[in-house]
Each structure stands twice: as structure tokens, then as C-alpha cells.
Design goal:
Length: 258
């Protein structure tokens, strides 16, 4: 693990628990308001992993949990191994993430290596690139949100309030697109049973992209479907009134050459 720092005690970073904090080096976002800019580039290893683990051995029964934050912890290839070491010592683990590395997040969740997840949702879809100052696959964000909400682990979503960058309306949009991607145009989706008249274009796009990526990507428990088969299933859903047919057609066109 590339570790940038270690805080021995915190009473505020892990809800209802006394915790220590491990700060990982490296982040794929470039948010202008970042409060840990020294951790972004990941150029230097400051803290020794073995020394941290040794210290934690002396805090068994005194600390309830460990917060692994960053930087972006899910960039670390050996994150699962490190979290396993923390769990083996009897600590609960809280993971902070920006949600951009869905595969790693899914990996540690399926392996039972985290007990609490805090994900930063940076902005509405249209403003994401402006806030993070880099290109990402927004479907990774959406899939991480879905995983966190459905996996049964305690979680929180949070957004940095920056008046110069985000408005009240932006926060309302974040709430809606994060919550509505399982809604269906015919009103038979969940959790709110929204109808076509209540779902705007970004929310409709997120619903279709969510289905497309869930069907096409390889996961530990299944092989992903091919593009054409997935589009046939989306078209069928559109005919049944579940998703937007125009967006389904655009997905077929845009993703066909990938």
C-alpha cells in the first residue's frame, strides 16, 4: 500500500466508533477545493505499512475501527490484502471513496472486507467534469452508487458544498439522479414509482446506462453479454415502456464501435 499518512485516533471520522485513519496516496480526480492536495499525486510513500499494523496491534480493545481514506484508496492494487489484515486484527473497516473504481469497490464488498462506505458525489452529471477536472466513465459512479445502496453495508453519500461551483438546484439534481436510476417510465420502478412525466433526460440516461453496463461487464459471478444482445434487451424494455426508446437507440449507436 502506498500510504501518505496515519492518524492514531479520531472521534469523528467513523460514525459511533473510535477509529484510526490510514491516508492512501494518489487520486484520479483534480477537484480544485481538495482538502488533501498533498495526497493527490501519490509520488512519495511517507508511512510504513508494517509500522502501522504493528501499532494497531497495541490498540486492540481500544480502537473500534479503521478508516481507510485518501487520496482514492480504490486505486491501490493491494487494497483488498491490506483491508484483510485490518479485519484479521478484529477491526471494523470504513472505506472512503469517490466511486470511480467500481471493480475494486465491488471486490472488497463481495469479500466482506468493509463494514461502512462513505462515497463522495461531486456534482450533477453535467458538471462532473468541471468539478473533478478530468475525464471519467460516469457509469462507474452510477454503478458504485447502486452497489453501495443495495449491498447491505452501512453507508453515507456526501457532497462538498462550494457556493462558487454548485447551486441549491445542483444538490436537488444529485439527489434525484442518484435515487431514480431504478425508476421506470411506466411507473413500475422503485423506490418511488416515478412516471415518465417525472423523469428528466439525465435520469433516463442513467437508468439506461445502468442496465447496459450491468449486462455487458464481467463480474466475479457472471460473464458480460455482447453489445448486440444487450441492445436487444434494452429495445425490448423500451417497447414495454420501461426505458426511453430514443436513449436506447443512442446507446446502440454510440457504444457499437467500442
Amino acid at each position: 500500500m502506498l500510504i501518505g499518512g496515519f492518524q492514531k485516533t479520531s472521534l469523528i471520522d467513523y460514525p459511533k466508533k473510535i477509529a484510526a485513519i490510514v491516508f492512501t496516496h494518489g487520486c484520479n480526480f483534480r477537484c480544485h477545493y481538495c482538502h488533501n492536495p498533498e495526497l493527490v499525486t501519490g509520488a512519495e510513500k511517507i508511512a510504513d505499512e508494517n509500522a502501522i499494523l504493528g501499532f494497531l496491534d497495541t490498540r486492540k480493545g481500544k480502537l473500534d475501527g479503521i478508516v481507510v481514506t485518501g487520496g482514492e484508496p480504490c486505486l491501490q492494487k493491494d487494497l483488498p490484502e491490506f483491508l484483510a489484515k485490518l479485519k484479521d486484527k478484529g477491526f471494523d473497516v470504513k472505506l472512503d471513496t469517490n466511486g470511480s473504481r467500481f471493480d475494486m469497490l465491488e471486490n472488497v464488498v463481495l469479500k466482506g472486507l468493509v463494514d461502512y462506505i462513505a462515497m463522495d458525489i461531486k456534482a450533477p452529471l453535467a458538471k462532473y467534469k468541471k468539478i473533478i477536472d478530468t475525464d471519467i466513465d460516469i457509469a462507474e459512479i452510477e454503478n458504485s452508487i447502486e452497489l453501495i445502496m443495495s449491498c447491505g453495508i452501512n453507508y453515507e453519500f456526501r457532497t462538498t458544498v462550494t457556493e462558487a461551483l454548485l447551486t441549491v438546484e445542483d444538490f436537488e439534481e444529485i439527489r434525484d439522479w442518484a435515487a431514480f436510476h431504478h425508476e421506470k417510465l411506466n411507473g413500475k420502478g422503485y423506490p418511488f414509482g416515478k412516471t415518465a412525466a417525472e423523469l428528466n433526460e439525465p435520469e433516463r440516461i442513467m437508468a439506461c446506462i445502468d442496465i447496459y453496463q450491468a449486462l455487458t461487464e464481467d463480474r466475479p459471478y457472471k460473464k458480460g453479454l455482447l453489445h448486440e444482445k444487450t441492445c436487444e434487451m434494452l429495445d425490448d424494455m423500451a417497447q414495454k415502456g420501461f426505458v426511453d426508446s430514443d436513449i436506447s437507440k443512442k446507446i446502440r449507436e454510440c457504444f457499437g464501435g467500442i
